[in-house]
Design a protein that fits this description.
The structure holds 2 protein chains of 2 kinds.
Chain A lengths: L3 E11 L5 E12 L4 E5 L6 H9 L6 E6 L2 E2 L7 E4 L11 H5 L1 H5 L4 H14 L15 H13 L5 E5 L7 H18 L2 E6 L2 H7 L2 E6 L4 E7 L11 H15 L5
Parallel strand pairs in A: 3-8, 3-9, 6-7, 7-8
Antiparallel strand pairs in A: 1-2, 1-4, 4-5, 9-10
Chain B lengths: L5 H59 L9 H12 L2 H34 L1 H15 L7 H8 L3 H25 L3 H9 L4 H38 L5 H10 L3 H29 L8
Helix pairs in contact in B: 2-10, 3-4, 3-6, 3-8, 3-9, 5-6, 6-8, 7-8, 8-9, 8-10, 9-10
Classes of the chains: A alpha/beta, B mainly alpha.
Amino acid sequence: MLDISIDNISKTWRAPDGREVVALQGVSFDVPSGGFCCIVGPSGSGKSTLFDVIAGLETPDHGRILVGGEVVERPGADRGVVFQGRSLFPWRTVQGNVEFGLAAQGRRKTERRHISQSFIDLVGLSGFEAALPSTLSGGMYQRAAVARSLATSPDVLLMDEPFGALDAQSREMMQSELVRIWQTQGTTILFITHSVQEAVFLADKIIVMSPRPGRVSAQIDVTLPRTRDRTGADFGMVMKEVYAHLTTPASA
Amino acid sequence: MHRFLAGPGGAAIASKGDFNLTRHRASASVGWTRKLASRSFGMLQAATGIAILLVGWEIVTVLFRPLPVILPSPQDVFGRLVYLLSTSETWSNLGISLARVVAGFLLGTGSGISVAVLLTRHPFLDRSLRSVLVALRFVIPFAWVPIAAYWFGLSETGKVFITWYASFFVIAFQVRAGIEAVPDLYVRVAQTFGMSRRRTLWQVILPAAWPKIIVGMRLGLSFAWVAILAAEMVNANSGIGYFINYSGQFLATDDVMAGMIMIGVLGFVTDQALSLFGRLVLPGKDAPR
Protein backbone atom coordinates (compact mmCIF):
# COMPACT_ATOMS: atom_id res chain seq x y z
CA MET A 1 0.00 0.00 0.00
CA LEU A 2 1.45 3.30 -1.05
CA ASP A 3 0.81 6.92 -0.20
CA ILE A 4 0.10 9.60 -2.78
CA SER A 5 1.68 13.02 -2.76
CA ILE A 6 0.36 15.73 -5.07
CA ASP A 7 3.06 18.36 -5.22
CA ASN A 8 2.24 21.81 -6.64
CA ILE A 9 0.54 20.61 -9.83
CA SER A 10 -0.38 23.12 -12.54
CA LYS A 11 -1.90 22.41 -15.92
CA THR A 12 -3.08 24.83 -18.60
CA TRP A 13 -5.12 23.89 -21.65
CA ARG A 14 -5.15 25.87 -24.83
CA ALA A 15 -8.70 26.23 -26.10
CA PRO A 16 -9.34 25.97 -29.89
CA ASP A 17 -9.81 29.75 -30.04
CA GLY A 18 -6.30 30.26 -28.61
CA ARG A 19 -7.32 31.30 -25.12
CA GLU A 20 -5.59 29.61 -22.21
CA VAL A 21 -7.68 27.81 -19.63
CA VAL A 22 -5.97 27.19 -16.30
CA ALA A 23 -7.33 23.80 -15.28
CA LEU A 24 -5.12 23.34 -12.23
CA GLN A 25 -3.07 25.90 -10.32
CA GLY A 26 -0.66 24.94 -7.56
CA VAL A 27 -2.60 21.92 -6.37
CA SER A 28 -0.93 20.16 -3.43
CA PHE A 29 -2.16 17.55 -0.94
CA ASP A 30 -1.20 14.17 0.44
CA VAL A 31 -3.09 10.94 0.85
CA PRO A 32 -1.61 8.64 3.49
CA SER A 33 -1.01 4.98 2.74
CA GLY A 34 -4.26 3.02 3.05
CA GLY A 35 -6.26 6.25 3.25
CA PHE A 36 -9.55 7.04 1.55
CA CYS A 37 -9.49 10.49 -0.02
CA CYS A 38 -12.39 12.12 -1.86
CA ILE A 39 -12.08 15.11 -4.13
CA VAL A 40 -15.23 17.19 -4.45
CA GLY A 41 -15.73 20.26 -6.54
CA PRO A 42 -18.07 21.78 -9.10
CA SER A 43 -17.60 21.34 -12.85
CA GLY A 44 -14.54 23.18 -14.10
CA SER A 45 -12.57 22.75 -10.89
CA GLY A 46 -10.08 20.51 -12.69
CA LYS A 47 -11.05 17.24 -10.99
CA SER A 48 -10.86 15.20 -14.18
CA THR A 49 -7.61 16.82 -15.27
CA LEU A 50 -6.10 16.04 -11.87
CA PHE A 51 -7.37 12.47 -12.21
CA ASP A 52 -5.70 12.09 -15.63
CA VAL A 53 -2.43 13.51 -14.29
CA ILE A 54 -2.38 11.11 -11.33
CA ALA A 55 -3.26 8.19 -13.61
CA GLY A 56 -0.33 9.20 -15.83
CA LEU A 57 -2.56 9.81 -18.87
CA GLU A 58 -1.59 13.52 -18.91
CA THR A 59 1.62 15.28 -17.92
CA PRO A 60 1.44 18.39 -15.71
CA ASP A 61 3.04 21.68 -16.78
CA HIS A 62 4.53 22.13 -13.30
CA GLY A 63 4.81 20.03 -10.20
CA ARG A 64 4.93 16.29 -9.73
CA ILE A 65 2.94 13.36 -8.44
CA LEU A 66 4.60 10.88 -6.11
CA VAL A 67 3.11 7.45 -5.49
CA GLY A 68 5.06 5.61 -2.80
CA GLY A 69 7.87 8.11 -3.29
CA GLU A 70 8.16 7.39 -7.03
CA VAL A 71 7.45 10.15 -9.55
CA VAL A 72 4.51 9.36 -11.86
CA GLU A 73 5.38 9.75 -15.54
CA ARG A 74 3.05 7.31 -17.26
CA PRO A 75 0.25 4.88 -16.41
CA GLY A 76 1.48 2.04 -14.26
CA ALA A 77 0.41 -1.16 -12.53
CA ASP A 78 0.74 0.53 -9.13
CA ARG A 79 -2.37 2.59 -9.90
CA GLY A 80 -5.69 0.94 -10.74
CA VAL A 81 -8.26 3.12 -12.46
CA VAL A 82 -12.06 3.01 -12.42
CA PHE A 83 -13.56 5.38 -14.96
CA GLN A 84 -17.00 6.92 -15.03
CA GLY A 85 -19.21 5.63 -17.82
CA ARG A 86 -19.29 2.38 -19.76
CA SER A 87 -15.65 1.36 -19.61
CA LEU A 88 -16.03 -2.44 -19.72
CA PHE A 89 -15.21 -4.14 -23.00
CA PRO A 90 -18.62 -5.19 -24.34
CA TRP A 91 -17.28 -8.19 -26.26
CA ARG A 92 -15.72 -9.74 -23.16
CA THR A 93 -17.60 -11.52 -20.41
CA VAL A 94 -17.35 -10.31 -16.81
CA GLN A 95 -14.54 -12.79 -16.29
CA GLY A 96 -12.84 -11.75 -19.53
CA ASN A 97 -12.96 -8.12 -18.45
CA VAL A 98 -11.59 -8.85 -14.99
CA GLU A 99 -8.76 -10.86 -16.58
CA PHE A 100 -7.88 -8.06 -19.00
CA GLY A 101 -5.25 -6.36 -16.85
CA LEU A 102 -3.79 -9.72 -15.82
CA ALA A 103 -3.41 -10.67 -19.48
CA ALA A 104 -1.71 -7.32 -20.10
CA GLN A 105 0.78 -8.31 -17.39
CA GLY A 106 1.38 -11.62 -19.15
CA ARG A 107 -0.04 -13.84 -16.37
CA ARG A 108 -0.75 -17.46 -17.22
CA LYS A 109 -4.28 -18.57 -17.94
CA THR A 110 -4.81 -20.73 -14.83
CA GLU A 111 -3.44 -17.93 -12.68
CA ARG A 112 -5.73 -15.42 -14.39
CA ARG A 113 -8.75 -17.64 -13.76
CA HIS A 114 -7.86 -18.04 -10.13
CA ILE A 115 -7.20 -14.34 -9.44
CA SER A 116 -10.18 -13.06 -11.43
CA GLN A 117 -12.50 -15.46 -9.64
CA SER A 118 -11.40 -14.21 -6.23
CA PHE A 119 -12.10 -10.60 -7.22
CA ILE A 120 -15.42 -11.47 -8.84
CA ASP A 121 -16.36 -13.09 -5.53
CA LEU A 122 -15.06 -10.05 -3.62
CA VAL A 123 -17.35 -7.63 -5.46
CA GLY A 124 -20.34 -9.99 -5.19
CA LEU A 125 -20.63 -11.04 -8.84
CA SER A 126 -20.30 -14.81 -8.31
CA GLY A 127 -22.53 -16.55 -10.84
CA PHE A 128 -22.13 -13.78 -13.40
CA GLU A 129 -18.68 -14.76 -14.68
CA ALA A 130 -20.02 -15.57 -18.15
CA ALA A 131 -22.40 -12.61 -18.42
CA LEU A 132 -21.74 -9.94 -21.03
CA PRO A 133 -21.59 -6.36 -19.68
CA SER A 134 -24.72 -5.32 -21.58
CA THR A 135 -26.77 -7.78 -19.52
CA LEU A 136 -25.66 -6.27 -16.19
CA SER A 137 -27.50 -3.65 -14.14
CA GLY A 138 -25.73 -0.34 -13.52
CA GLY A 139 -24.50 -1.38 -10.08
CA MET A 140 -23.31 -4.79 -11.22
CA TYR A 141 -21.56 -3.15 -14.17
CA GLN A 142 -19.50 -0.93 -11.87
CA ARG A 143 -18.79 -3.86 -9.55
CA ALA A 144 -17.21 -5.61 -12.53
CA ALA A 145 -15.22 -2.46 -13.35
CA VAL A 146 -13.96 -2.28 -9.76
CA ALA A 147 -13.01 -5.97 -9.87
CA ARG A 148 -11.10 -5.43 -13.12
CA SER A 149 -9.08 -2.60 -11.58
CA LEU A 150 -8.40 -4.47 -8.33
CA ALA A 151 -7.38 -7.70 -10.08
CA THR A 152 -3.89 -6.46 -10.88
CA SER A 153 -3.40 -5.69 -7.16
CA PRO A 154 -2.68 -1.97 -7.48
CA ASP A 155 -1.40 -0.12 -4.40
CA VAL A 156 -3.63 2.81 -5.22
CA LEU A 157 -7.14 2.85 -6.68
CA LEU A 158 -8.18 5.96 -8.61
CA MET A 159 -11.93 6.34 -9.12
CA ASP A 160 -13.52 9.05 -11.28
CA GLU A 161 -17.19 9.44 -10.32
CA PRO A 162 -17.71 5.69 -10.67
CA PHE A 163 -21.23 5.75 -9.24
CA GLY A 164 -22.37 8.96 -10.93
CA ALA A 165 -24.69 7.20 -13.36
CA LEU A 166 -26.40 5.00 -10.76
CA ASP A 167 -29.81 5.54 -9.21
CA ALA A 168 -29.74 6.79 -5.62
CA GLN A 169 -30.36 3.43 -3.98
CA SER A 170 -27.78 1.46 -5.98
CA ARG A 171 -25.37 4.29 -5.37
CA GLU A 172 -25.67 4.05 -1.60
CA MET A 173 -25.36 0.29 -1.77
CA MET A 174 -22.21 0.59 -3.89
CA GLN A 175 -20.74 3.11 -1.45
CA SER A 176 -21.19 0.65 1.42
CA GLU A 177 -19.68 -2.09 -0.72
CA LEU A 178 -16.69 0.05 -1.63
CA VAL A 179 -16.00 0.80 2.06
CA ARG A 180 -16.17 -2.93 2.78
CA ILE A 181 -13.77 -3.73 -0.08
CA TRP A 182 -11.41 -0.94 0.96
CA GLN A 183 -11.39 -2.25 4.53
CA THR A 184 -10.58 -5.80 3.39
CA GLN A 185 -7.99 -4.83 0.74
CA GLY A 186 -6.36 -1.87 2.47
CA THR A 187 -5.82 -0.15 -0.88
CA THR A 188 -5.22 3.60 -0.87
CA ILE A 189 -8.22 5.15 -2.65
CA LEU A 190 -8.54 8.49 -4.38
CA PHE A 191 -12.17 9.05 -5.33
CA ILE A 192 -13.58 11.93 -7.36
CA THR A 193 -17.21 12.91 -6.92
CA HIS A 194 -19.75 15.68 -7.35
CA SER A 195 -21.68 14.54 -4.33
CA VAL A 196 -20.86 15.97 -0.89
CA GLN A 197 -22.86 13.24 0.81
CA GLU A 198 -20.91 10.56 -1.03
CA ALA A 199 -17.62 12.16 -0.02
CA VAL A 200 -18.59 12.41 3.65
CA PHE A 201 -19.79 8.82 3.69
CA LEU A 202 -16.61 7.44 2.08
CA ALA A 203 -13.62 9.58 2.96
CA ASP A 204 -11.05 9.95 5.73
CA LYS A 205 -10.03 13.12 4.01
CA ILE A 206 -11.95 15.40 1.68
CA ILE A 207 -10.22 17.75 -0.74
CA VAL A 208 -12.57 20.55 -1.79
CA MET A 209 -11.70 22.15 -5.11
CA SER A 210 -12.86 25.45 -6.56
CA PRO A 211 -13.13 26.34 -10.25
CA ARG A 212 -11.35 28.73 -12.61
CA PRO A 213 -8.57 28.21 -11.90
CA GLY A 214 -8.87 24.76 -10.34
CA ARG A 215 -7.27 24.81 -6.91
CA VAL A 216 -7.66 23.30 -3.47
CA SER A 217 -9.94 25.45 -1.32
CA ALA A 218 -10.07 23.19 1.75
CA GLN A 219 -8.80 19.92 3.17
CA ILE A 220 -11.18 18.36 5.66
CA ASP A 221 -10.39 15.33 7.80
CA VAL A 222 -13.42 13.18 8.46
CA THR A 223 -13.14 11.33 11.73
CA LEU A 224 -16.70 9.96 11.93
CA PRO A 225 -16.67 6.32 13.05
CA ARG A 226 -17.45 3.61 10.49
CA THR A 227 -20.04 2.50 9.59
CA ARG A 228 -21.38 5.98 9.00
CA ASP A 229 -24.99 6.96 9.41
CA ARG A 230 -26.03 9.25 6.56
CA THR A 231 -28.87 10.61 8.66
CA GLY A 232 -26.78 11.28 11.80
CA ALA A 233 -26.37 14.80 13.19
CA ASP A 234 -22.55 14.61 13.11
CA PHE A 235 -22.72 13.46 9.49
CA GLY A 236 -24.78 16.54 8.69
CA MET A 237 -22.25 18.77 10.45
CA VAL A 238 -19.43 17.50 8.24
CA MET A 239 -21.58 17.98 5.13
CA LYS A 240 -22.27 21.53 6.24
CA GLU A 241 -18.58 22.21 6.61
CA VAL A 242 -17.84 20.87 3.11
CA TYR A 243 -20.66 22.91 1.59
CA ALA A 244 -19.28 26.04 3.29
CA HIS A 245 -16.03 25.62 1.37
CA LEU A 246 -17.78 24.71 -1.87
CA THR A 247 -19.77 27.91 -2.01
CA THR A 248 -17.05 30.39 -1.03
CA PRO A 249 -14.37 31.26 -3.61
CA ALA A 250 -10.83 30.09 -2.95
CA SER A 251 -9.01 32.51 -0.68
CA ALA A 252 -5.47 31.14 -0.85
CA MET B 1 -32.96 3.76 8.31
CA HIS B 2 -30.38 1.13 9.07
CA ARG B 3 -30.61 -0.35 5.62
CA PHE B 4 -28.50 2.54 4.41
CA LEU B 5 -25.61 1.48 6.59
CA ALA B 6 -22.64 -0.49 5.38
CA GLY B 7 -22.77 -3.51 7.73
CA PRO B 8 -26.12 -4.97 6.72
CA GLY B 9 -25.50 -3.61 3.23
CA GLY B 10 -23.31 -6.60 2.43
CA ALA B 11 -26.13 -9.01 3.15
CA ALA B 12 -28.63 -6.88 1.26
CA ILE B 13 -26.38 -6.94 -1.78
CA ALA B 14 -25.91 -10.67 -1.67
CA SER B 15 -29.66 -11.20 -1.65
CA LYS B 16 -30.11 -8.78 -4.52
CA GLY B 17 -27.43 -10.66 -6.38
CA ASP B 18 -29.23 -13.96 -5.86
CA PHE B 19 -32.48 -12.47 -7.04
CA ASN B 20 -30.82 -11.21 -10.20
CA LEU B 21 -29.12 -14.55 -10.67
CA THR B 22 -32.35 -16.52 -10.74
CA ARG B 23 -33.95 -13.97 -13.01
CA HIS B 24 -30.91 -14.13 -15.27
CA ARG B 25 -31.08 -17.93 -15.56
CA ALA B 26 -34.80 -17.92 -16.15
CA SER B 27 -34.53 -15.34 -18.92
CA ALA B 28 -31.67 -17.32 -20.46
CA SER B 29 -33.89 -20.42 -20.88
CA VAL B 30 -36.83 -18.38 -22.11
CA GLY B 31 -34.44 -16.61 -24.48
CA TRP B 32 -33.33 -19.92 -25.97
CA THR B 33 -36.81 -21.15 -26.89
CA ARG B 34 -37.74 -17.70 -28.10
CA LYS B 35 -34.60 -17.58 -30.21
CA LEU B 36 -35.44 -20.97 -31.73
CA ALA B 37 -39.01 -19.86 -32.42
CA SER B 38 -37.93 -16.59 -33.98
CA ARG B 39 -35.32 -18.39 -36.08
CA SER B 40 -37.83 -20.85 -37.54
CA PHE B 41 -40.24 -17.96 -38.05
CA GLY B 42 -37.47 -16.14 -39.90
CA MET B 43 -36.94 -19.18 -42.14
CA LEU B 44 -40.66 -19.32 -42.82
CA GLN B 45 -40.62 -15.66 -43.83
CA ALA B 46 -37.66 -16.26 -46.13
CA ALA B 47 -39.47 -19.23 -47.70
CA THR B 48 -42.55 -17.05 -48.19
CA GLY B 49 -40.49 -14.54 -50.18
CA ILE B 50 -39.16 -17.28 -52.46
CA ALA B 51 -42.66 -18.77 -52.87
CA ILE B 52 -44.10 -15.38 -53.89
CA LEU B 53 -41.36 -14.96 -56.49
CA LEU B 54 -41.96 -18.46 -57.95
CA VAL B 55 -45.75 -18.12 -58.04
CA GLY B 56 -45.50 -14.69 -59.74
CA TRP B 57 -43.08 -16.11 -62.27
CA GLU B 58 -45.36 -19.10 -62.95
CA ILE B 59 -48.40 -16.85 -63.39
CA VAL B 60 -46.56 -14.63 -65.88
CA THR B 61 -45.44 -17.61 -67.99
CA VAL B 62 -48.91 -19.21 -67.95
CA LEU B 63 -50.79 -15.98 -68.73
CA PHE B 64 -48.52 -14.46 -71.35
CA ARG B 65 -46.84 -17.60 -72.72
CA PRO B 66 -43.57 -15.83 -73.55
CA LEU B 67 -41.04 -17.50 -75.84
CA PRO B 68 -38.64 -19.62 -73.72
CA VAL B 69 -35.83 -17.36 -74.96
CA ILE B 70 -37.56 -14.34 -73.40
CA LEU B 71 -38.69 -16.00 -70.18
CA PRO B 72 -38.57 -19.76 -69.62
CA SER B 73 -40.97 -21.28 -67.10
CA PRO B 74 -39.82 -22.16 -63.57
CA GLN B 75 -40.18 -25.86 -64.40
CA ASP B 76 -37.86 -25.54 -67.41
CA VAL B 77 -35.27 -23.63 -65.42
CA PHE B 78 -35.37 -26.04 -62.50
CA GLY B 79 -35.19 -28.97 -64.87
CA ARG B 80 -32.03 -27.49 -66.38
CA LEU B 81 -30.70 -26.67 -62.93
CA VAL B 82 -31.09 -30.28 -61.80
CA TYR B 83 -29.46 -31.50 -64.99
CA LEU B 84 -26.59 -29.00 -64.84
CA LEU B 85 -25.89 -29.87 -61.22
CA SER B 86 -25.48 -33.50 -62.28
CA THR B 87 -22.57 -32.59 -64.57
CA SER B 88 -19.00 -32.26 -63.33
CA GLU B 89 -18.51 -29.29 -65.66
CA THR B 90 -20.98 -27.17 -63.69
CA TRP B 91 -19.35 -28.06 -60.39
CA SER B 92 -15.95 -27.22 -61.77
CA ASN B 93 -17.25 -23.85 -63.06
CA LEU B 94 -18.79 -23.11 -59.65
CA GLY B 95 -15.60 -24.20 -57.90
CA ILE B 96 -13.44 -22.01 -60.13
CA SER B 97 -15.62 -18.94 -59.57
CA LEU B 98 -15.75 -19.61 -55.84
CA ALA B 99 -11.98 -20.01 -55.67
CA ARG B 100 -11.44 -16.72 -57.54
CA VAL B 101 -13.85 -14.90 -55.26
CA VAL B 102 -12.44 -16.35 -52.06
CA ALA B 103 -8.82 -15.74 -53.07
CA GLY B 104 -9.44 -12.10 -54.01
CA PHE B 105 -11.68 -11.60 -51.00
CA LEU B 106 -9.08 -12.96 -48.57
CA LEU B 107 -6.40 -10.77 -50.11
CA GLY B 108 -8.80 -7.82 -49.99
CA THR B 109 -9.57 -8.52 -46.33
CA GLY B 110 -5.91 -8.77 -45.34
CA SER B 111 -4.82 -5.71 -47.30
CA GLY B 112 -7.98 -3.74 -46.47
CA ILE B 113 -7.61 -4.22 -42.71
CA SER B 114 -3.85 -3.54 -42.85
CA VAL B 115 -4.29 -0.34 -44.85
CA ALA B 116 -7.09 0.83 -42.54
CA VAL B 117 -4.88 0.26 -39.48
CA LEU B 118 -1.97 2.12 -41.13
CA LEU B 119 -4.19 5.06 -42.11
CA THR B 120 -5.64 5.42 -38.61
CA ARG B 121 -2.19 5.26 -36.99
CA HIS B 122 -0.33 7.60 -39.34
CA PRO B 123 -2.22 10.85 -40.04
CA PHE B 124 0.35 11.78 -42.70
CA LEU B 125 -0.38 8.62 -44.71
CA ASP B 126 -4.08 9.20 -44.24
CA ARG B 127 -3.96 12.76 -45.56
CA SER B 128 -1.75 11.88 -48.51
CA LEU B 129 -3.52 8.69 -49.59
CA ARG B 130 -7.13 9.50 -48.83
CA SER B 131 -7.88 11.36 -52.05
CA VAL B 132 -6.38 8.59 -54.19
CA LEU B 133 -8.26 5.89 -52.30
CA VAL B 134 -11.55 7.74 -52.48
CA ALA B 135 -11.12 8.37 -56.22
CA LEU B 136 -10.19 4.74 -56.97
CA ARG B 137 -13.19 3.62 -54.98
CA PHE B 138 -15.40 5.11 -57.68
CA VAL B 139 -13.62 3.29 -60.50
CA ILE B 140 -15.69 0.12 -60.77
CA PRO B 141 -13.76 -3.15 -60.95
CA PHE B 142 -15.26 -3.79 -64.39
CA ALA B 143 -13.21 -0.88 -65.77
CA TRP B 144 -10.08 -2.79 -64.83
CA VAL B 145 -11.00 -5.93 -66.79
CA PRO B 146 -9.26 -4.88 -70.04
CA ILE B 147 -6.18 -3.66 -68.18
CA ALA B 148 -6.08 -6.84 -66.12
CA ALA B 149 -6.18 -8.75 -69.40
CA TYR B 150 -3.17 -6.82 -70.75
CA TRP B 151 -1.26 -7.32 -67.52
CA PHE B 152 -2.16 -10.87 -66.64
CA GLY B 153 -3.69 -12.33 -69.83
CA LEU B 154 -6.17 -15.13 -69.26
CA SER B 155 -4.37 -16.26 -66.10
CA GLU B 156 -5.97 -16.69 -62.72
CA THR B 157 -3.92 -13.78 -61.42
CA GLY B 158 -6.02 -11.40 -63.49
CA LYS B 159 -9.29 -12.77 -62.03
CA VAL B 160 -7.97 -12.61 -58.50
CA PHE B 161 -6.76 -9.07 -59.14
CA ILE B 162 -10.32 -8.08 -60.08
CA THR B 163 -11.93 -9.71 -57.03
CA TRP B 164 -9.22 -8.27 -54.77
CA TYR B 165 -9.82 -4.80 -56.21
CA ALA B 166 -13.57 -5.17 -55.83
CA SER B 167 -13.37 -6.08 -52.15
CA PHE B 168 -10.36 -4.07 -50.98
CA PHE B 169 -11.80 -0.54 -50.94
CA VAL B 170 -15.06 -1.19 -49.19
CA ILE B 171 -13.29 -3.28 -46.55
CA ALA B 172 -10.57 -0.66 -46.00
CA PHE B 173 -13.10 2.16 -45.64
CA GLN B 174 -15.44 0.23 -43.35
CA VAL B 175 -12.60 -0.91 -41.11
CA ARG B 176 -11.20 2.60 -40.94
CA ALA B 177 -14.61 3.95 -39.94
CA GLY B 178 -14.90 1.13 -37.39
CA ILE B 179 -11.51 1.90 -35.84
CA GLU B 180 -12.28 5.62 -35.69
CA ALA B 181 -15.54 4.90 -33.89
CA VAL B 182 -13.83 2.93 -31.10
CA PRO B 183 -14.49 4.87 -27.87
CA ASP B 184 -11.36 6.60 -26.59
CA LEU B 185 -12.27 5.31 -23.14
CA TYR B 186 -11.37 1.73 -24.15
CA VAL B 187 -7.90 2.82 -25.22
CA ARG B 188 -7.47 4.76 -21.97
CA VAL B 189 -8.41 1.65 -19.98
CA ALA B 190 -5.76 -0.33 -21.86
CA GLN B 191 -3.22 2.44 -21.16
CA THR B 192 -3.89 2.38 -17.44
CA PHE B 193 -3.00 -1.32 -17.45
CA GLY B 194 0.27 -0.43 -19.17
CA MET B 195 -0.67 -2.28 -22.36
CA SER B 196 1.57 -1.69 -25.37
CA ARG B 197 0.25 -0.01 -28.52
CA ARG B 198 0.58 -3.18 -30.57
CA ARG B 199 -1.23 -5.25 -27.99
CA THR B 200 -3.92 -2.62 -27.60
CA LEU B 201 -4.55 -2.89 -31.35
CA TRP B 202 -5.15 -6.65 -31.14
CA GLN B 203 -6.81 -6.77 -27.74
CA VAL B 204 -8.95 -3.63 -27.81
CA ILE B 205 -9.18 -1.73 -31.08
CA LEU B 206 -9.79 -4.56 -33.54
CA PRO B 207 -12.26 -6.40 -31.26
CA ALA B 208 -14.13 -3.13 -30.63
CA ALA B 209 -14.26 -2.49 -34.39
CA TRP B 210 -15.19 -6.12 -35.16
CA PRO B 211 -18.87 -5.55 -36.05
CA LYS B 212 -17.87 -2.94 -38.65
CA ILE B 213 -15.05 -5.18 -39.87
CA ILE B 214 -17.55 -7.97 -40.51
CA VAL B 215 -19.91 -5.55 -42.28
CA GLY B 216 -17.02 -4.43 -44.49
CA MET B 217 -16.04 -8.05 -45.21
CA ARG B 218 -19.61 -8.98 -46.16
CA LEU B 219 -19.85 -6.00 -48.50
CA GLY B 220 -16.42 -6.85 -49.91
CA LEU B 221 -17.48 -10.43 -50.54
CA SER B 222 -20.64 -9.36 -52.36
CA PHE B 223 -18.65 -6.90 -54.50
CA ALA B 224 -16.17 -9.69 -55.31
CA TRP B 225 -19.04 -11.92 -56.53
CA VAL B 226 -20.41 -9.15 -58.73
CA ALA B 227 -16.96 -8.41 -60.12
CA ILE B 228 -15.99 -12.00 -60.90
CA LEU B 229 -19.17 -12.54 -62.91
CA ALA B 230 -18.46 -9.46 -64.97
CA ALA B 231 -14.83 -10.44 -65.47
CA GLU B 232 -15.67 -14.02 -66.47
CA MET B 233 -18.22 -12.86 -69.01
CA VAL B 234 -15.62 -10.77 -70.83
CA ASN B 235 -12.36 -12.49 -70.42
CA ALA B 236 -12.44 -16.14 -69.35
CA ASN B 237 -13.01 -19.66 -70.58
CA SER B 238 -14.15 -21.06 -67.26
CA GLY B 239 -16.27 -20.08 -64.30
CA ILE B 240 -19.96 -19.53 -63.81
CA GLY B 241 -19.86 -16.07 -65.43
CA TYR B 242 -18.33 -17.62 -68.52
CA PHE B 243 -21.06 -20.29 -68.49
CA ILE B 244 -23.83 -17.68 -68.28
CA ASN B 245 -22.33 -15.63 -71.09
CA TYR B 246 -21.77 -18.73 -73.25
CA SER B 247 -25.34 -19.95 -72.66
CA GLY B 248 -26.66 -16.50 -73.53
CA GLN B 249 -24.91 -16.56 -76.86
CA PHE B 250 -26.75 -19.79 -77.69
CA LEU B 251 -30.06 -18.26 -76.54
CA ALA B 252 -30.25 -20.85 -73.74
CA THR B 253 -32.12 -18.54 -71.40
CA ASP B 254 -33.04 -21.43 -69.10
CA ASP B 255 -29.33 -22.14 -68.58
CA VAL B 256 -28.65 -18.43 -68.02
CA MET B 257 -31.30 -18.33 -65.33
CA ALA B 258 -30.08 -21.58 -63.78
CA GLY B 259 -26.64 -19.96 -63.58
CA MET B 260 -28.16 -16.89 -61.93
CA ILE B 261 -29.82 -19.09 -59.32
CA MET B 262 -26.55 -20.89 -58.64
CA ILE B 263 -24.76 -17.58 -58.11
CA GLY B 264 -27.53 -16.28 -55.88
CA VAL B 265 -27.49 -19.37 -53.70
CA LEU B 266 -23.69 -19.47 -53.52
CA GLY B 267 -23.52 -15.77 -52.68
CA PHE B 268 -26.16 -16.19 -49.99
CA VAL B 269 -24.39 -19.18 -48.47
CA THR B 270 -20.97 -17.49 -48.40
CA ASP B 271 -22.49 -14.32 -46.92
CA GLN B 272 -24.24 -16.25 -44.17
CA ALA B 273 -21.09 -18.24 -43.46
CA LEU B 274 -19.18 -14.99 -43.02
CA SER B 275 -21.84 -13.56 -40.77
CA LEU B 276 -21.78 -16.74 -38.66
CA PHE B 277 -17.98 -16.54 -38.54
CA GLY B 278 -18.26 -12.99 -37.21
CA ARG B 279 -20.61 -14.07 -34.45
CA LEU B 280 -18.50 -17.10 -33.54
CA VAL B 281 -15.29 -15.10 -33.23
CA LEU B 282 -16.87 -12.40 -31.06
CA PRO B 283 -20.34 -13.06 -29.71
CA GLY B 284 -20.80 -9.36 -28.88
CA LYS B 285 -23.98 -8.34 -30.66
CA ASP B 286 -23.73 -5.46 -28.23
CA ALA B 287 -20.28 -4.41 -29.34
CA PRO B 288 -20.17 -0.76 -30.38
CA ARG B 289 -21.25 -0.05 -33.93
